[in-house]
Design a protein that fits this description.
Layout: H1 13-19, E1 23-27, E2 35-36, E3 49-53, E4 57-68, E5 77-84, E6 89-91, E7 94-96, E8 99-100, E9 112-115, E10 118-119, E11 126-133, E12 145-149, E13 158-159, E14 162-170, E15 176-187
Antiparallel strand pairs: 1-8, 1-15, 2-15, 3-9, 3-14, 4-12, 4-13, 4-15, 5-11, 5-14, 6-10, 7-9
């Protein structure tokens, strides 16, 4: 096959982190089971998800994808994705092992990811995004989806210690999610 004079192809900075083995992801521990997590009201110390970034590591969030499954939430779902200048997990929750997005796994993540943890109280969260989402699940058509991508927004650069903390809650029954979080990691000079 003759490709002719195609020119040079250059990957963008997000794709390059995958090629370099510096991009990671987490998703449901049981891929077929939506995780009920978050609660029925806001509590600063009870987030649904935490990505903790330790000192010496920098993180750029790449993508957050939440899709309602399992039990339908009891009311409109509130989602608050926040950023913090400290490691927030205090105790509990379920730890998830980040997977390198390059499958020969040239390195492991320096970050920790938890679902349903207890968080240290914090009064200076900065919102990455927030919104109200419909609480429906009628089979295959209109399940609620929360989606954020660095390709469509200005992504922050979290220099550890820092955290990405996501709260999800609904009136009488907490939401259940199929989830995927993706991020890129870099070493911070001078740490």
């Amino acid at each position: 096959m003759d490709y002719g004079n195609q020119g040079q192809v250059v990957s963008d900075r997000y794709d390059q982190t995958i090629f370099d083995g510096r991009a990671f992801m987490v998703s449901n521990a049981a891929r077929e089971t939506a995780l009920a997590v978050g609660g029925t009201s806001f509590s600063d110390t009870a987030p649904a998800f935490i990505l903790d970034v330790p000192s010496g590591t920098g993180v750029v969030p790449l993508e957050i994808d939440l899709r309602q499954g399992g039990t339908v939430a009891g009311g409109v779902i509130t989602v608050l994705a926040t950023l913090s200048d400290k490691v927030r997990r205090a105790s509990g929750g379920t730890s998830h092992t980040p997977q390198n997005m390059r499958f020969d796994e040239p390195q492991t993540s320096g970050c920790s990811f938890y679902t349903g943890p207890t968080a240290a109280a914090n009064d200076d969260d900065i919102s990455l995004f927030s919104g109200l989402y419909e609480h429906n699940l009628d089979g295959a058509v209109t399940a609620s989806q929360v989606f954020w991508s660095a390709r469509h927004s200005y992504a922050p650069y979290l220099v550890g210690p820092a955290s990405l903390v996501v709260y999800t809650f609904a009136g009488t029954t907490q939401p259940s999610w199929f989830f995927t979080f993706k991020w890129a990691e870099v070493f911070v000079r001078g740490s």
